[in-house]
Write a structure and sequence with these properties.
Glucose Oxidase, domain 1, Enzyme I, Chain A, domain 2, TIM Barrel, 3 domains, eight-stranded mixed beta sheet, eight-stranded parallel beta barrel, 14% strand
Amino acid sequence: MSIKVTGIAASDGFAKAKVYQLVEPDLSVKRVDIQDSASEINRLDQAIDQSIHELHKIREIAAESLGEEEAQVFDAHVMVLSDPELVQQVKDKIESESVNAEFAFEEVTEMFVQMFEAMEDNAYMRERAADIRDVRKRVLAALLGVTLPNPAGIDEEVIVVAHDLTPSDTAQLNKKYVKAFVTNIGGRTSHSAIMARSLEIPAIVGTGDITEKAPQGTLLLVDGVKGEVIINPSAEEEAAHEKAAADFAELKKVWQKLRDEKSVTADGVEVEIAANIGTPRDMEGVLHYGADGVGLYRTEFLYMDSNELPSEDKQFVAYKEVLEQAGDQPVVVRTMDIGGDKKLPYLKLSSELNPFLGYRAIRISLDQDEIFRTQLRALIRASIYGNLHIMFPMIATIEEFKQAKAIFEEEKEKLINESVEISNDIKIGIMVEIPSSAVIADQFAKEVDFFSIGTNDLIQYTMAADRMNERVSYLYQPYSPAILRLIKHVIDSAHKEGIWTGMCGEMAGDPIAVPLLIGLGLDEFSIGASDVLKNRSLIRKLDSKEMASLANKALYECQTAEEVKALVEKIVHQ
């Protein structure tokens, strides 16, 4: 008898294979009174060293298979195990209470986990709690002499089923054998979902209880488009699944034919569908999927993949490589966006109660302008190799923008005086991700060359709701009339002054949001490279005038996000 389970479609596609249950060994520990504290401390040191070595290897695998951006999480894990305060507290407990290393390590790390998780309004600290939980398992396994699951060792086609997939687990998935994964918990913005889309394998998360219903070796069908799993399917269900998979494969072939086509609506309005990248290596996907340039180059990964601030020459080489590969197409480079959930071990930043509303991004750049000047010099030097656009993140006031632009102009003038060849057509814009900048977009539009709306932050700041906090995540509403009105104001303000507006983040590739954004007049959509052709196909079916009418109804006739969604589904996705 087959069983159907539904969840959240985190990465589209179809898969059919037997279940590989990613089950952890028993890591429970007991308190044991010991006589030789020095021996236990030595055991702890060895376990930590072994764990750090394993994490470095996993990071290498992740960087190779997923890219530098996704691999960064393992730097955080190494930082946890290198934290002298945490390690010393474990050693002190071993000595003062004469207890075994396993017990002391679990007790101390649990204290840190509970302390961080108690900070309900601090997403960064809650993520650190998750990091501690992940590395604790690795150290305890080393101390207990047991082996953690090794997804990298899978050598036959399977569908991985787990309660959740840690970054360590996901980084080791080989898409040659892992055809999909399904988890009990998670959402579209979780680490595992993002990594699945990078690997381009189907994924369904948030099923609730898939681990209980799908035991090892069970045949499974995964529909990553609808978010459905069928356990022990009937012959009829297998046949239907195979047809749906074949239809989807044909659809992808149709999409691929659009690789060299323009991104244009049914009535001839041309837009740009650009790609988000984190490293020069990501340009391979940008070119393969025929993106209209780079809409967001996250330069912070240059800083995070280093033990020190990257030099001007190192940055210059990276920017030059991306610009050369993009050719005449625009490359929008975001200046360093460090802070919030992105920390640098070598850049000492004081702890903050709410780092997402604190000292980050342009605020650091303006305060420590020697770092900012180095980056700007590298960018200006690279500008002759392509179509460079520079974007400042986290701009809240006109004064901040003017200060940042003044520094840019100073460094540009210095390079000219040094007889360095540079482009005379570098565009300067801002990310609109703070409500204050959205509200006075009409004023900003007189100063900047372009806008790029950062919806992930704009939505949660506007709704005062942390999207990673499950208790208030219902307020993370991209279709809210309030959000749509802010977006309309930004776009209208830009067009009035003859400049363009783009958007980066989840909303720019959301099939419900895209018709609305076309109706609102958005000029550029910047999304994951693998989603470019799917969105190009959708946009080519939309009439901009009809979408303008749709957007107007959503803005002024709908009261809730659900009403907006229902309206789009009725008119566009029926």
